[in-house]
Amino acid sequence: SRLILQGCGVIYVLFAVLGKLNAAFITIPYSVLGGTMILYYGIFFGVILSQLQFVNLNDTRNLAILGISVLVGFMLPHWVEKRPDGLNTGIEGLDRTLTMLAANGVFVAGFVACFLDNTVSGILISRL
C-alpha cells in the first residue's frame, strides 16, 4: 500500500541522516535486502503496467508506440554503458548531460513514448 512505501521512505531518510541507525541497516543480510528490492520493484512495475488499462491495446499505433518506447528504453542505456564516449558533441557539459539522460532507461522510454504519441498520426480516439 501507499502508506507502507511512505513509511519505508521515511525510514530510509532517517537511516541516511542518523549514523547509528545506518549501522543497524548495514547488519541486514544482502539476501533480505535483495528480496525486499525484488518485492518493491515488482510492485512498482505492476503499478506502472496497471496504467495500460486506460490504453486501447487493440490499436496498432498504440502497440507500436508502447513496444518501441520500451525497446529503446532497454537498448539505449545498454549502448551508453558499453560506449560511454559514444555521444560526442564537442561540448563536454552537453556530452555529460546527454550521457546521463541516455543512461536512464525510464527517462528514455518516457521521452520516446511522449515524442511518438505526439508525432505519429492516428485518429483522435486512439490518441486518448
From TrEMBL:
Keywords: Membrane, Transmembrane, Transmembrane helix. Signal peptide: none annotated. InterPro entries: NCS2. One of its GO terms (molecular function) is transmembrane transporter activity. It is found in: Membrane. It is a multi-pass membrane protein. The chain crosses the membrane at residues 12-32, 38-56, 63-80, 100-125. Its main location: membrane. GO terms for cellular component: membrane. Belongs to the nucleobase:cation symporter-2 (NCS2) (TC 2.A.40) family. This is Uncharacterized protein.
